[in-house]
């Protein structure tokens, strides 16, 4: 079984899996008579497939026992799924490339800062949201609509990977 070492999240490294949501590098616009700044169009929301619509939710994540075991992966074939933390604590995004099944040789863990979010592209294999705090709320924007938008693959316990303790 592999030990995944969290790597820093960068736009380049995360490119195959979706978008990094962050102020750094964003197109910005002064708005509201100069009393606010807009960081514009940070992620490609893709939710219209099959008559879907965008919804905004809040997930309250709680820390999983260490070492965190990657015993399954999931994906949402009909829509993207964006997460942005509401508290400034690091968290983790675990992803893998692949089509009908994830390619476990490409399994990667990214350490995400508390001022960064991610937007998983439609069909991107990922592990459910992982906080490193005792509890952490996330704004989540994803797809509501007809069709099966959750595919999960479970692995034999202890067979894939754990995440190195921080
Ligand atoms: N169940 C649910 O909506 N959560 C997952 O999709 C996730 O990525 O956390
Ligand atoms: Ni998901």
From TrEMBL:
Coiled-coil residues: none
GO MF assignments: ureidoglycolate hydrolase activity; ureidoglycolate lyase activity
Catalytic activity reported: (S)-ureidoglycolate = urea + glyoxylate
UniProt keywords, alphabetically: Lyase, Purine metabolism
Keyword Lyase: yes
Biological process according to GO: allantoin catabolic process; purine nucleobase metabolic process
Record SUPFAM superfamilies: RmlC-like cupins (SSF51182)
InterPro entries recorded: RmlC_Cupin_sf, UAH_cupin, Ureidogly_lyase, Ureidoglycolate_lyase_dom_sf
Keyword Ribonucleoprotein assigned: no
Cited PANTHER family: UREIDOGLYCOLATE HYDROLASE, UREIDOGLYCOLATE LYASE
Self-association state and partner proteins as the record states: Homodimer.
Protein name: Ureidoglycolate lyase
Lineage: Bacteria, Pseudomonadati, Pseudomonadota, Alphaproteobacteria, Hyphomicrobiales
């Amino acid at each position: 079984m592999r030990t995944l070492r969290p790597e820093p999240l960068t736009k380049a490294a995360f490119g195959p899996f979706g978008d990094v949501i962050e102020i750094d590098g964003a197109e910005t616009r002064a708005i509201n008579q100069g009393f606010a700044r807009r960081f514009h169009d940070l992620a490609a929301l893709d939710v219209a497939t099959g008559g879907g619509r965008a919804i905004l939710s809040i997930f309250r994540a709680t820390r999983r026992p260490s070492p965190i075991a990657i015993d399954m992966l999931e994906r949402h074939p009909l829509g993207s799924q964006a997460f942005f933390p509401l508290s400034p604590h690091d968290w983790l995004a675990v992803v893998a490339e692949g089509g009908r099944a994830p390619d476990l040789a490409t399994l990667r863990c990214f350490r995400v800062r508390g001022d960064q979010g991610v937007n998983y592209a439609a069909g991107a294999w990922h592990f459910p949201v992982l906080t490193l705090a005792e509890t952490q709320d996330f704004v989540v924007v994803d797809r509501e609509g007809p069709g099966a938008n959750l595919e999960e693959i479970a692995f034999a316990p202890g067979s894939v990977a754990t995440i190195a303790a921080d």
